[in-house]
From TrEMBL:
Keywords: Lyase. This is Amidohydrolase family protein. Gene3D superfamilies: Metal-dependent hydrolases. It holds the Pfam family Amidohydro_2. Residues 3-330 form the Amidohydrolase-related domain. InterPro entries: ACMSD, Amidohydro-rel, Metal_Hydrolase. It comes from the Bacteria. The keyword Chaperone does not apply. The lineage of its organism: Bacteria, Bacillati, Actinomycetota, Actinomycetes, Kitasatosporales.
Amino acid sequence: MIIDIHGHYTTAPAPLGQWRDAQVAALTDPLRAPDPAGPAIGDDEIRESIETNQLRLMDERGVDVTVFSPRASFMAHHIGDFAASAAWARICNDLCHRVSELYPDRFVPGAMLPQSPGVDPATVVPEIERAVLELGAVTVNLNPDPSGGHWTAPPLTDRSWYPVWEKLVELDVPAMVHVSTSCNPAFHTTGAHYLNADTTAFMQLLAGDLFADFPELRLVIPHGGGAVPYHWGRFRGLAQALGRPEPEESLLRNVFFDTCVYHQPGIDLLLEVMPVENVLFASEMVGAVRGIDPRTGHHFDDTRRYVEKAGLTPEDLAAVEERNARRVYPRLDARLAAQGR
C-alpha cells in the first residue's frame, strides 16, 4: 500500500471560497455575514471536485490512500479573530470529513485548527477533540506562525503550547507543523514562508526540551524539512555550540519528515541524511507546484517517481511508502486495519 500523508483539499467547490469571502467581508460589514451553518455543497459537487483532480492523479500515480486536510493557504489564521477562525475551521474540517465518508477507502481526514494571533493556543483543544473523536481525523495541521509571516507567536517549546501537546498525546495523534498564507510581502507563501517555517520549527525544537516533557509527542515537518537535511551539519554544529545533544538523539524519536521535495537530487539527499524510519511518503498534490517539469516530462509533484528511484532496498521503500505512516499515525493504522488492510 502507498500512503500519501500530505494532501489538502485545494480543489474544494466554489461555495466554500464564497462563504469565506462573505465571512471576511462581515468583519467590517456585519450585514454581509454568511449562513453560520456553512456553504451549501452537495455530494455531487464534492465528487466532481475530487474525481477530476486528486482521485484521478492518485489512480494515475498508484497512490492508495491520502491523508486529506483543509487547504493550508486557506487557513489564514491572521484574518479576523478566534471566533472567525473557529467557524472557518469547523466548516473546512467538516468538508474533509465528508470527502472521507464518500471515499472511505481512499481518503482519511486531517484537520486544521482555529488558531488566531495573540490568542492562547489552548483555545484550539476543543476542535482537536471534535475533529479526532467525531470526524475521525488522524492528524492536525498546527501553524507555528498564526500571524502570517510576522512571527509573533512564541516558539513551539514555550509552555503556552503545552495544553495542545497534552491533548495530542492523550489522543495519540501527531501534528503536521504547517503554516498558512503569508501576509508579509517579503515572504512568498509557498516558495519562502512554508520552507522558512519548516526550518524555523526544527530549530525551535533543537534549542528546547519539548520532548523531555512529551516523549510520546510526534511532529511531522513537511516539504522535506525545509533546509534541515541540506544543512544537517549546521544543525549538529549549533546543537554542539548550544550544549544540546546530537539531533539524532534528542529529536529524531519524535520528529519526522515528508517527501514533498520536487526533484530527484533533493529526495536522494533527504533519504541519505535522514534515517529511513523518519521519512514518510507524501506529495502535497494538488498543491503548490502543479506544473510539468520540461526536463522529465512528469509533474514536479509526482514524488513516487523520485522515491522509487532513490536506490532504497525493498524493505526500506515499504517503510517510507506505508509502514512509517502506520506507525506515526496510529489512528490511520487502526482505520486501515478495520478495513482489512
